[in-house]
Structure formats: C-alpha cells, structure tokens
C-alpha cells in the first residue's frame, strides 16, 4: 500500500499541536548534555511519541532523532526519518516562542517530504505548499558563535540572530530573510528538512561551500550552510 507522505507529515504536526499544553508543562524540566546544551523532558516526549508513531506507519524505519540517535548506524536504506523534536531548546526552556519541530522522510536516499513547524507561533510549512514570497533585506545568522558571524553582520543591510534553525530556515524559504548563514555547522536533523523545503522555494544553497542539490546528508557529521532566497 502506498503511503501518503503529506498526510503523514500533517499528522505528525498534529501530534505536536494536540499535545502542546503538555509540552509547555515540561519546558522547564531541564537537564544539560555533555556539551552544556539544554534538553527538556518535552524534547524527549515529542521524540518518543513521534518515533513510535512513525515506526507503526513506515515498515523497517531507520529513525534519526536528535535525542536518541545511535552514531554507530552506518546504513540508511529503506525508510529514514530525521526529527529534531525541539529546535531552539534554549529559547524554548527560556519561555520564548521561537522554537520549532522539523521532520524529513526519505526512502532509499530519495526525499519524500519534509515539515517545519513553530507551534507557539502557529506557523507550518510542508513540502508542496504554495506560499507568497517576500522581499527582505535581512540576513539571519546562527546563534552558535563563529568569527565569521560578526564579519557578516558588518556587511549585512539588516541582520537577526534568533537561536532557532527552524525559524531561520522557514523564513529564508519564504523570503522573510534574504539569506541565512551558519558558518559553524549543525547536524542533519537541525538542517536537512529545512534545506529541502528551501530548495523547493527558489533558494540557492551551499553546504560546506559546495552547491547543494538535495542529496541526503550523513547524520554523524556537521554541516556549514549558506542559503540565499532568489
């Protein structure tokens, strides 16, 4: 039976939306990882819920989630799902609304669909959506500090640092940012679903200084990105 990916992505978004009250209750139950970045019980709640739900829908799924990924995985055959349950956790656990969930689904290296959502801002963008494009002067920068960021700020007409890749990728895809730059690098679950959506919406993308054309990115590595809305 053919699986309708659009419905699958919408239903995953509904899981987050329908459980938002519970998610918000868990936002201040915080622990810190070895790299001193925060993780909340809400991160794990969303990841566990969606991973179990997807495994019941997609046969022999390889699930790649930020909070549970096994770096020993070397093969990505069949169905693969990449999930960042709460991107912008520092924002989330500080009570800010600029956080999001990203999900992408592949099969045998072929992209089937991706979704970006920011539940508290009531924003969502899914593969195939038709949206009006904006004409912005703003360049968005990653909040992970790199010496190239202040240099870029000096050259930008306007700039923003928001601390949420979903927010940045969503806005460059629709032209609310004319450009988004992360010179330090992030993992595939942070970036790849949003890169696929940005590619669909007239964006020119470089990953590690090379043109990006939609290829699957190995989850064990970090990637620098430069995205320009055309």
Automatic annotation (TrEMBL):
Belongs to the inositol monophosphatase superfamily. Signal peptide: none annotated. Pfam families: Inositol_P. Gene3D superfamilies: 3.40.190.80, Fructose-1,6-Bisphosphatase, subunit A, domain 1. Its cofactor is Mg(2+). It comes from Pectobacterium parmentieri. Mg(2+) binds at residues 66, 84, 86-87. Keywords: Magnesium, Metal-binding. GO terms for biological process: inositol metabolic process; signal transduction. One of its GO terms (molecular function) is metal ion binding. This is Inositol monophosphatase.
